[in-house]
Every structure is written in structure tokens, then in C-alpha cells.
Design goal:
Elements (H helix, E strand, L loop, with lengths): L2 H12 L17 E7 L2 E6 L5 E3 L4 H36 L19 H7 L1 H10 L12 E4 L6 E5 L14 E3 L42 E3 L12
Antiparallel strand pairs: 1-2, 2-3, 4-5, 4-7, 5-6
Length: 232
């Protein structure tokens, strides 16, 4: 792209006029289209490789995107603080250092790996499921955790309305603890008026679903071990 064209694009962008991205960030092709919006920010989908991505189309959306990024950073900070409190309490009760499974050294400062911290809560979720009287539906229903295909974090689970043969909507997914009430993270509304295009990761903003509306990465709860990891 020439400098003149680039300046013209930026001028239109700053005026609030919608400007299309130059190319797909995944395959480089220029055949892509709008695919709705996520948090009022345009989502694009490539017609060649099928990948979707979020990219502001104008300055107004860019400002919203910056605010969303700030929100995710504050959410991550609250999670680090929460996990540190949990470890400090456990250390006070145990009276010595906490040793991570598979390591010979004491646990490093909490917050170094946000994804591992999020997955660590899966063991607690398993215990809650055992105490829950509502049965899990084989092949669908409440039997799965949803893993973000981009950052690999686990923040949502499926509800009893989840049907893998149908496109996902907001009522089929539920934000898990501690993100739901203890940390009060922002997430999409959990009702059937929310389409699959708006079902995105609360940490990185990536979409959970493919172009056909199906979840890209789901983990059966029965395959998650006591350390919050998927059994190999």
C-alpha cells in the first residue's frame, strides 16, 4: 500500500468512516466479509480460510477496543490478587510451603501464568458437579468446559440447553467461578438472543465458535483430572 493510500485510509478511519482491513491476518487473502459485532466492535470473517477476527473499522470502535483491553487487564489483575489471597490462606493453614504437582520447588508467585490459574479452578468445579443433583446430558447439556481456541483459557461451561448439533447461543454457556461472582468478570449476556458470533472469551476476546456456529474446543468434564488438566 502506498503512503498516500495509507494516509487516506487513516483520515477516513479517524473521521469515523468504516475502513476495511487490508487482508486476512491468518491467510493473507483479501476475500472477507463482516460477521457481526462483538462488544460494538466489528468482527470480520475470511471467505477462504474461515477464520474470524475482531478489528475496529473506525476510530469510534478503536476507542471502544482500547477500553475493552483495559477491562481485560483489570480483570486479570483481580484474578491475580484473588489467587494470591487463596495461596496465602492455604500457606497459613498448612504452616509451610505449597508444592505444585510435578515440581520440586515451592509455588512461584501467583499471577505468572493466568491460563494455568484459570484451569486450576476446574478441580473445584468437578467437586461442585458431584454435589449437583442435575444430571449431565451425554453428548450435550452440562457436561463440558469451553476452552478458548486462542489463549487456551477456560472460563465458561455448557448449560443444560447446550446441543452440539445446533448453533450456539448465549443461553447454552455459563461463566464459571471464580470469574462469575467472586471476580465479577464481564461476559456476554447468557440468553438465547445472543448469537454464536457474540460468544467470546472474556480474557482475550476471541470467538468460541467456528463459522457454522459450533464450539471449536470443548472438554468433557469427566476427562479433567484433579489438577484441572485434561487427561492425556
Amino acid at each position: 500500500m502506498g503512503k498516500g493510500t495509507e494516509r487516506a485510509r487513516k483520515k477516513l478511519f479517524d473521521k469515523g468512516v468504516d475502513v476495511r482491513p487490508e487482508k486476512c491476518p491468518f491467510c493473507g487473502d483479501k476475500k472477507f466479509t463482516r460477521d457481526g459485532k462483538v462488544r460494538l466492535i466489528t468482527r470480520w470473517r475470511c471467505k477462504v480460510c474461515g477464520h474470524g477476527w475482531i478489528e475496529p473499522a473506525n476510530r469510534i470502535e478503536a476507542n471502544l477496543w482500547a477500553k475493552a483491553k483495559d477491562l481485560r487487564q483489570r480483570q486479570a489483575k483481580r484474578l491475580r490478587e484473588y489467587r494470591k489471597e487463596q495461596v496465602d490462606e492455604a500457606q497459613a493453614e498448612a504452616g509451610d510451603e505449597i508444592i505444585l504437582p510435578g515440581n520440586d520447588q515451592a509455588a512461584p508467585p501467583v499471577g505468572d501464568n493466568l491460563i494455568e490459574q484459570g484451569e486450576a479452578f476446574l478441580s473445584d468445579m468437578n467437586k461442585q458437579e458431584e454435589e449437583d443433583d442435575e444430571p449431565e446430558c451425554e453428548g450435550g447439556g452440562r457436561g463440558y468446559y469451553v476452552r478458548c481456541p486462542s489463549c487456551r483459557g477456560i472460563f465458561h461451561e455448557t448449560t443444560e440447553k447446550y446441543d452440539p448439533s445446533k448453533p450456539v447461543n448465549g443461553a447454552m454457556l455459563r461463566l464459571i467461578e471464580p470469574y462469575r461472582t467472586q471476580l465479577n468478570w464481564y461476559s456476554f449476556p447468557e440468553n438465547d438472543s445472543i448469537s454464536y458470533a457474540c460468544c467470546e472469551c472474556p480474557d482475550c476476546g476471541s470467538q468460541y465458535c467456528s463459522a457454522d456456529g459450533k464450539l471449536i474446543d470443548v472438554i468433557p468434564k469427566s476427562e479433567v483430572d484433579g489438577n484441572g488438566r485434561q487427561d492425556q
